[in-house]
């Protein structure tokens, strides 16, 4: 009994001391949740930090602090001199790059962040239309913590497979990988809202092109696998039976969700080079802009064929654009490198081949019917 009392007192004191230490620590530091980088004046780097500070009553407030220096480390040191508390980066969740800086090149910054032991590989990387500073310093009426808001915006869209994943670990992998280029989300301010506006395409470490949010579906389709997602596609009215499309628009919208995919890519000619890409897509149809009789197996079969053709056509269009801007967002170089032994492939050599590569795309789509369609 005496032993139990002693242990109880010991545990109570330990919790009390730990609680005091935690409170004292939080009072002394500011937690950086987001960093934004822009091109500054005279080729300097402009850094904007979103910092959460906690007072003795455990009430927090958010402070936006900016500084310019020749290096990221130097900018962060200047930011530290502008705050009353020591800045810590252990809670950082997002790194943003301004559009001009992204076009100039982010390779050095990705390398620096990857080698920083205080930086988690799970932080999300994105590009901002315009400057990150103007976005972060804007006084939003309904957003109290812009750092947390942007993180949750990106996180939930990536988690729900509405946007390609862009963790620091993944971005660094794509940068260092021979045969695959970086592709990351773009965000922008639209009046009082922050929204994802597309995907930034890179050649090595420089941004060379953009895709819309709709087109980002095809980049993810070619790079990764879908487990559960939703997308909308249009089918030409004339491609479906006339009896099923009366009073329908010329382009019939179809909404699909619960998508899961499988993909096979095979190099069939190393010289051209030429690839066969076969993608199998299964999905549940939520909505269609035509009064089709989906109890008729022939109508369902025709609809599946046309959805597959439409996906393949759009995928080919996005691929051609990626070739035009010289960004291998599809990762075709990885398939080439793994298929051709002793290729002595370099980034320059692959991109010379990539610009004229031919890809034969075939998409097999199957409707997973449920509810009233069963």
UniProtKB/TrEMBL annotation:
GO biological process, one term: spore germination
Domain Spore germination GerAC-like C-terminal residue range list: 197-371
Record keyword Lipoprotein present: yes
Keyword terms of this UniProt record: Germination, Lipoprotein, Membrane, Palmitate, Signal
Subcellular location per the Swiss-Prot or TrEMBL entry: Membrane
GO annotations of cellular component type: membrane
InterPro entries per the UniProt record, alphabetical: GerAC_N (IPR057336), Spore_GerAC-like (IPR008844), Spore_GerAC-like_C (IPR046953), Spore_GerAC_C_sf (IPR038501)
Stretches assigned to the Spore germination protein N-terminal domain: 23-188
PANTHER family named among the record's database cross-references: SPORE GERMINATION PROTEIN B3 (PTHR35789)
Name of protein: Ger(X)C family spore germination protein
Originating species: Paenisporosarcina quisquiliarum
């Amino acid at each position: 009994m005496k032993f139990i009392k002693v242990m109880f007192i010991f545990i109570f004191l330990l919790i009390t001391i730990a609680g005091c230490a935690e409170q004292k620590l939080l009072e002394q530091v500011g937690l950086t949740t987001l960093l934004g980088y822009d091109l500054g004046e005279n080729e300097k780097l402009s850094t904007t930090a979103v910092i959460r500070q906690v007072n003795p009553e455990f009430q927090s407030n958010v402070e936006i602090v900016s500084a310019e220096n020749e290096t990221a480390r130097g900018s962060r040191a200047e930011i530290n001199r502008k705050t009353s508390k020591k800045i810590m980066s252990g809670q950082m969740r997002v790194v943003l790059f301004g559009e001009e800086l992204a076009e100039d090149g982010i390779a050095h910054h990705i390398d620096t962040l990857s080698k920083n032991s205080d930086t988690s590989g799970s932080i999300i990387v994105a590009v901002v239309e315009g400057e990150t500073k103007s976005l972060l310093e804007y006084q939003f009426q309904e957003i109290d913590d812009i750092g947390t808001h942007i993180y949750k915006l990106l996180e939930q869209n990536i988690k729900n497979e509405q946007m390609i994943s862009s963790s620091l670990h993944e971005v660094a992998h794509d940068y260092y990988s021979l045969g695959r280029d970086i592709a990351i989300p773009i965000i922008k301010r639209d009046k009082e809202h922050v929204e994802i506006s597309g995907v930034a395409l890179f050649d090595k470490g420089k941004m060379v092109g953009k895709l819309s949010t709709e087109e980002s579906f095809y980049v993810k389709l070619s790079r990764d696998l879908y487990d559960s997602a939703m997308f909308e596609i249009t089918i030409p009215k004339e491609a479906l039976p006339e009896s099923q499309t009366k009073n329908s628009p010329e382009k019939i919208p179809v909404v699909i969700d619960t998508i899961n995919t499988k993909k096979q890519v095979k190099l069939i000619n190393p010289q051209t080079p030429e690839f066969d890409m076969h993608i199998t897509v299964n999905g549940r149809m939520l909505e269609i802009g035509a009064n089709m009789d989906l109890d008729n197996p022939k109508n369902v079969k025709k609809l599946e064929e046309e959805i597959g053709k439409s996906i393949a056509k759009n995928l080919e269009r996005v691929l051609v654009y990626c070739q035009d801007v010289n960004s291998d967002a599809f990762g075709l170089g990885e398939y080439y490198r793994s298929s051709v032994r002793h290729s002595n492939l370099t980034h320059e050599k692959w991109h010379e081949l990539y610009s004229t590569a031919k890809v034969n795309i075939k998409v097999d789509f199957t409707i997973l019917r449920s509810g009233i369609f069963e």
